[in-house]
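<amino_acid_chain>
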Amino acid sequence: MISTQFILAVAVGFTVLCWSANRLVEVASTLAFRLGMSLLTIGVTVVAFGTSAPELMVSSVAAFNGSGGIAIGNVVGSNIVNIGLILAIGGLIAPLVVKARIVYRELSILLITTIGSALMLMDGTLSLWDGIIFSVAFFAYSFYLLNSSTGQEAEQDIPVLPISTLRAFVESLVMLVMLVLGSQLLVWGAKGIALAMGVNELIIGLTLVAFGTSLPELATVVVSARKGLHDMAAAAVIGSNIFNILAVLGLSGIVGQNITVDATALRIDMLTMVGMTILMAIVVYSGKTSDNREKPDQTPDRVWKVSRVKCLLLLLAFVVYEIWLVMSTS
């Protein structure tokens, strides 16, 4: 029987994670803006990476505590959830609009990092060297982002609060502490539930933890769709998945050094993550292209428009995977 304290720990941990991650994005964006960073730079760094802060904290804490299944399963599961559920929901609310920069750059980088991570983790081990390789790639990607952003690209809808620079700095530190505490509570509760149910930690990481840590991305996509910022959905999901692979697996590998999971079970889930990423690329590339400009004298900005029907395919693929996951553990 599952103890009430484990269920309560997961619920409270999720709540603290979502609230602190959302607030961290706001105050960190405000701090960056006060320090002179452009809104575009903030959008492709602070906001995009901030929504993946729960995955970073949960997986690194789990890796440090020796819960390799939760650490790796959280990343793989979150990436699958981001594509098959969150992006699909955003596309069903309003047809997806994907800009040329996302199609040619971020989507290509995601495909490479996803396939590369699958090859590296096929043995079921996330070693120290794996973590170093992922981390170096993440810093290289971040440097590339900061140096390739141009003022001609569209500004993002960035939250800038009417607070002082000092308060923004202090709140950023407080939110980071809250993220760590929430992650510790969530990992402890999830591990307790897994032991009580006799379920592999990898399954808990792929399902319960993955769903919970993906809530900030879900909120970002839904709010963006409701505000008419249709191009933000794909950008948020693709950016988050790149961050999960490079930064989250990187830090987890370093703090956990040599964490292992069932290689046979992980292999199927890794292939699913690769398959979902490739399916997303096919769905996007098969969309209708057009020049997104309101006035004739504006510089053409090529975009891909993805219909709701194609987003439904992503959702159906996700449902099939979840059904298989449940049946395989019953």
